[in-house]
Each structure stands twice: as structure tokens, then as C-alpha cells.
């Protein structure tokens, strides 16, 4: 078939398809049920035009229609996926801010002991060994030796990807302990959060006093923004369970626990997501010795600012929770 005959036969179809694209673009509506079949037919026309070596102008015109059709046909699925993610994040942030008293309590239980223990171990080495044994302290020093090829925990795994899996397992286990401990009237959550704060403080003070600041702080600052925040949030979720058991109000304790758990789980979804990010950064970014210390510290500071802003000040959390 000659090109002129080809154009005459399908010109009306192409114009109708183009008009449909313009109308859908202006209205923002999704394509009608007949659009996928029309799109497939247009793809066949483009394939025929290329196979028969029709003019570049015609091929370019059909290709433009096909690309626009593809965008219109598959864009709604992308919008739905992005919309669901944004909705899930908004729900997490709304729940987080609604229960900020538990988050503040968990944060204080973590930060204050960490600061006190950090200062104490820096000035008095004997305090370190009240929480960490001498072999553990020596192991910590070897982990952050500047001569190491990779900074951080000793690697049984051969690749960063395997370490990524290890960090996910390790981080989520701590978060789960912080959350599940709330079932014991909140005592378990308090103990886990408190212990992790004391342990971080002891390690920080000891390594600073031992002269490993240039490797330790650049290592922890990046992924710590997500990991430590997630542990605090997990502890807050556990405390919500404990508070429901201690003070159920007019509800039966089992019913109060059920309602608190439904709320707390929303926090755990967000905390788990943050721990995945933390594990990725710890495996592929924090442990690297090729990156300048100044870069790690700068990026780490920006990540801390971002996490705190996102959790407590971003407009995403202002969305209403779906009924």
C-alpha cells in the first residue's frame, strides 16, 4: 500500500485518537474502555509505517501519538502507586504527631542516658566497663580502626549487599523488642530504649576518649538519623501499649490494648521503612573509607535535619486520615 493511500485510510482514526488525547489531557480523566484497543491499533500503524519505509514525517507523527497514548494509558497506575505511598506516609506522620507525648518520652529515655553515659565514660574509663566488658571494648576499637578497609562491625558477609541484609535483621530485631516489650505494661519498652541509649553513650564516650572520633562519628551520623529515630518511635509504640494496659479508662484492658495496638502498628510501619533506609546507608555509605570525613559529616547533618523536619514539620503530615 502506498503511503498516500495509507494516510487516507487511517487519517480520521489518527485525528480522533489525537483529539481524545487532548480532551483527556484537559479534563485529567482516565482513558475510556475503548482506549487500550485504539492504542494497540495505533502501535500497529506505527510498526507498518516503519516496516514499509514511509516518510520520516509520518513515522514521527505516529510515534508522537504512540508515546502520548502510552503516557496516558499507564500514568494513572503510577499516580495510584505514588498516591498510596504518600497516603501511607501521611497516615504515619499523622499518627506520630498525634502521639507525640509518647515519642517525646521515648526520646528522653534514649537521649538523656546516652548523654550522661557518654560524658561519664569519656572522663572515667571504669564506667565503661560497668556496661561493656573489656573484650567488647577492644572489639569496638578494632571495628573503628582507621586502617580497616571498611569501617563498622566486622564482616562475616563478603559483600555490601549481604551486610545490608544483616543490618535489616539486626535493626528490626531491636525495633521489635522495643515495640513488643510494651505488652508488659510498658516496662519492656522502657528497658530496651533505656539500655540502647546507655549502650550508645558508653560506646561513644569510650571511642572518643580512645581517639577514634574521626571514624566513629562519620560512620554513625548518616544512617543514625533513620536508625535511632526509628528505635525511639518503636519504643513510643510499645509505650502506647503499656499505657493502654495501665490506664484503660472506661474500656476493658483487652479492648484498650486492641485499640492502642491498631494505632501503634501505624508507627511501626513507618519505623520499619526508616530501618530499611538506615540499613542501606550503613551497608553502602557509612562503612566506606573512600569518602571524605567532611562529606560524611555534612551529609549526615543534612539527613538529621531532613528526618526531624519530615517527621514533625512537613506539610505531608497535615493530611487528614481517611475515615
Automatic annotation (TrEMBL):
The keyword Aminoacyl-tRNA synthetase does not apply. InterPro entries: SpoIIM-like. It comes from the Bacteria. Pfam families: SpoIIM. Keywords: Membrane, Transmembrane, Transmembrane helix. The chain crosses the membrane at residues 102-122, 164-185, 192-212, 224-246, 267-285, 297-317. The keyword Chloroplast does not apply. PANTHER family: SLR1478 PROTEIN. This is Uncharacterized membrane protein SpoIIM, required for sporulation.
